[in-house]
From TrEMBL:
Signal peptide: none annotated. This is Serine/threonine/tyrosine interacting like 1. It comes from Homo sapiens.
Length: 221
């Protein structure tokens, strides 16, 4: 189970909607099953004998897709399907899995989001609070910081190889441009420069890994 997720229930072989969630107000709705890896749905035709294997494995929509189709009728925003399902997600983010199913509102409010992942497993962007959280540092295996603020964090103090502190006031007038060359050099020394460049190329233009299913099925993959 993924932390903060709600388990979908079934009655008479039909999926039930979560009673505690106002789907019309939900902005980010993510559905996952065990291991969905594609959004493609093939419809079985009784007159079509092209399925020589006869197992029909790829002809039946997986649970996440079936439920996602139901939710699209009730949400104002796109419904997202988690690629690879729980198996892939929990393998990469094992620290976000749990046996707990029921969450109190206070627990959900206190849950600390993790930094944004820019390059998988290598580069993250977060706020100062996340940069000071020992659990987040341990879970993400953070080995260096670029601190762009006036505050001093608790990690890598005095280690110039692992900490670059750019002291800039948090104001609209602040200028970060003069420091970009220094920051890029610091990242290059860490050996992440090529990884960042590869990620930028793969996410620009035609190669962007996103798929839309049309206006009737506003899903994102």
């Amino acid at each position: 189970h993924v932390i903060t997720a709600l388990r979908v229930k079934k009655k008479n072989n039909e999926y039930l909607l979560p009673e505690s969630v106002d789907l019309e107000c939900v902005k980010y709705c993510v559905v996952y099953d065990n291991n969905s890896s594609t959004l493609e749905i093939l419809l079985k035709d009784d007159d079509d004998d092209s399925d020589s294997d006869g197992d029909g494995k790829d002809l039946v929509p997986q649970a996440a897709i079936e439920y996602g189709r139901i939710l699209t009728r009730l949400t104002h925003h796109p419904v997202y399907i988690l690629k690879g399902g729980y198996e892939r997600f929990s393998g990469t983010y094992h620290f976000l899995r749990t046996q707990k199913i029921i969450w109190m509102p206070q627990e959900l409010d206190a849950f600390q989001p993790y930094p944004i992942e820019i390059v998988p497993g290598k580069v993250f962007v977060g706020n100062f609070s996340q940069a000071c959280d020992p659990k987040i540092q341990k879970d993400l295996k953070i080995k260096a910081h670029v601190n762009v603020s006036m505050d001093t964090g608790p990690f890598f103090a005095g280690d110039a190889d692992k900490l670059l502190h750019i002291r800039i006031e948090d104001s609209p007038e602040a200028q970060i441009l003069p420091f970009l060359r220094h920051m890029c050099h610091f990242i290059e020394v860490l050996g992440l420069c090529q990884e960042v460049q590869k990620q930028h190329v793969s996410k620009s233009g035609i190669g962007e890994p996103a798929a839309g299913m049309g206006e009737d099925y506003p899903w994102r993959f």
